[in-house]
Automatic annotation (TrEMBL):
This is Cytochrome P450. The keyword Chloroplast does not apply. Belongs to the cytochrome P450 family. It comes from Roridomyces roridus. It holds the Pfam family p450. One of its GO terms (molecular function) is monooxygenase activity. GO terms for cellular component: membrane. PANTHER family: CYTOCHROME P450 (PTHR46206), P450, PUTATIVE (EUROFUNG)-RELATED (PTHR46206:SF5). Its main location: membrane. Its cofactor is heme.
Length: 524
């Protein structure tokens, strides 16, 4: 009452009453508009109410809320969560929903994460381009990529952790891992000279904080739960009015423009697309962007006119390759620290691989680690940090399995972890969520209806091969040099609340104790 009285004294009773009336009217209009939009839909796609209550109940106990409602309504249900009406998809329809040609994953990701706001490009064009670039520029030259990233991992770990005689506690493994990945990606995306520039490294390391904040813009606000479009308006406002990305884009434009000019001059003098850049052909996404956009590098004006497009694509690639990869690897490190009983098997495999590959973890060596692959698949299968991430937008009215009508424009959210815990995928297990590290035979980058960590079908994550190799490199280096444990093993891995946005790293601290020199594996 004291707070209400203070608010009344400050705003005035009439103004406070008017604000309350406006909020009530907006809430009533929201209810009415949803009911009107859905009045002609068949009853077999039920809608859970109330709008606000659904989100609050979900946040209180997300997995229990989903299980209860799927049991009640069946494998397809409608719910208003985090200010957006969504069609939630359960097993066994998740694979069909993820692969159906009428469901667009790029638009689904944009509906939740506002990629067009973040990078300023039309989402279809941008996402297709981004996937193509990653596949062409990185996956097809994985050996070069592994060769370039390995020194960063060794250097950063020795710099941040060192070979001290006693244990070292890493309170936030995510930040340590992100620093390594950011420096390696900076080198690989813009070449060696720019890749070692402190300002460019700053962009690659910290721009993900801003992008992550925008992707969840207003998600926890009561206003966002009631007022349609509030989150998109807020994200637009922060980008266009507060210009929170401007410090990073200014650096990119200032640094990339001379780089493009230099490339133009070299192309003009050499007249070839096979120019050896900086002495060796690097995995250089910047150059690939210029090539794939058919930019005439003999024409300076044409090349520089596209710098904004290069800048925006690079922002997306930084977020996808640095933030998401760092989250995946943090989960792996925490899982390694939790399951100390698995260390002996993993170390035995690591020793054999190093012995058969000249002591070097090459791309070929990383592909020959079935134990680590199985451990990684089981870690990703059992993690709960993000139950969304595979959203789709329905392109035209579609009957799923012949009876569930999904209208054009609907947002689908396949709840992927429900597939991971489907007993039908794991016959013979009494508890499908029991951690069984050696239960998989496939590479951890291979997707399937029972393993959806990286998506499924033509929309599967194109960067999953990179993420898996990076995780294997970091885990191998840590296990080879340190005994890795959780700081508070009795608490296990601290799981953040599941969200409908993107992956979230765990917050568990780890303790690294250097191995005796005679036991430590030398990793080049």
């Amino acid at each position: 009452m004291n707070s209400l009285q203070a608010l009344s004294d400050r705003w005035g009773t009439n103004n406070l009453a008017a604000a309350g009336a406006l909020a009530t009217a907006l809430y009533a209009w929201r209810l009415y508009s949803i009911r009107q939009a859905n009045k002609d839909l068949p009853p077999h796609v039920p809608y859970t109410n109330p709008i606000l209550g659904s989100t609050l109940d979900y946040m209180h106990a997300p997995h229990e809320w989903l299980a209860k409602n799927f049991d009640k309504y069946g494998p397809v249900m409608r719910a208003s969560l985090f200010g957006r009406e969504q069609y939630l998809i359960d097993t066994p329809l998740i694979p069909d929903a993820m692969k159906h040609k009428n469901f667009n994953s790029e638009q689904g990701a944009n509906a939740i994460q506002f990629l067009d706001v973040l990078v300023g490009l039309a989402v279809d064009y941008h996402m297709e381009d981004g996937q193509h670039l990653v596949l062409k520029a990185l996956n097809n030259r994985m050996e070069i990529f592994v060769e370039r990233i390995r020194p960063y991992i060794s250097l950063m770990l020795d710099e941040k952790v060192g070979r001290k005689s006693g244990p070292v506690t890493v309170e936030d493994p995510f930040k340590l891992i992100r620093s390594m990945i950011a420096q390696a990606m900076c080198d690989n995306f813009v070449g060696k000279s720019l890749g070692r520039d402190p300002e460019m490294i700053h962009v690659f390391t910290h721009v993900t904080d801003v992008v992550a904040a925008l992707a969840t813009a207003g998600a926890s606000s009561m206003v966002a739960l009631i007022v349609p479009g509030f989150r998109r308006w807020y994200a637009n406002y922060m980008v266009n009015n507060r210009k929170i990305l401007k410090p990073y884009t200014d650096i990119l434009i200032r640094k990339l423009t001379p780089e493009i000019e230099a490339r133009v001059a070299l192309r003009q003098s050499c007249g070839t697309n096979e120019l050896e850049w900086e002495g060796s052909k690097p995995v250089d996404v910047l150059q690939t962007i210029l090539d794939d956009r058919n930019i005439d590098l003999t024409n300076r004006e044409a090349a520089l006119a596209r710098i904004g497009e290069v800048n925006n694509l690079l922002l997306f690639l930084i977020f996808a390759s640095v933030h998401l990869t760092s989250v995946h690897i943090t989960w792996m490190i925490n899982s390694i620290a939790l399951h100390t009983e698995c260390h002996e098997e993993l170390l035995k495999e690591l020793k054999l691989v190093l012995a058969s590959h000249g002591g070097v973890l090459s791309d070929e060596a990383l592909r020959n680690m079935p134990k680590l692959d199985s451990f990684m698949r089981e870690t990703f299968r059992t993690r709960f940090d993000c139950i969304g991430g595979s959203q789709r937008i329905v392109q035209e009215d579609t009957l799923l399995e012949g009876k569930y009508l999904l209208p054009k424009g609907a947002l689908l959210n396949p709840i992927t972890f429900r597939a991971h815990q489907n007993p039908g995928h794991w016959p013979g297990r009494e508890d499908v969520m029991e951690f069984q590290p050696w239960s998989h035979e496939e590479p951890s980058s291979r997707t399937s209806p029972a393993y959806l960590q990286f998506g499924l079908g033509r929309h599967a994550c194109p960067g999953r091969f990179l993420a898996v190799n990076e995780a294997k490199l970091i885990v191998s280096y840590l296990l080879g040099r340190y005994d890795v444990k959780l700081k508070e093993p009795e608490k296990g891995v601290v799981t953040p609340m599941p969200a409908f946005t993107f992956s979230i790293a765990p917050t568990s601290a780890i303790v690294l104790t250097p191995r005796d020199e005679k036991d430590a594996l030398v990793l080049l």
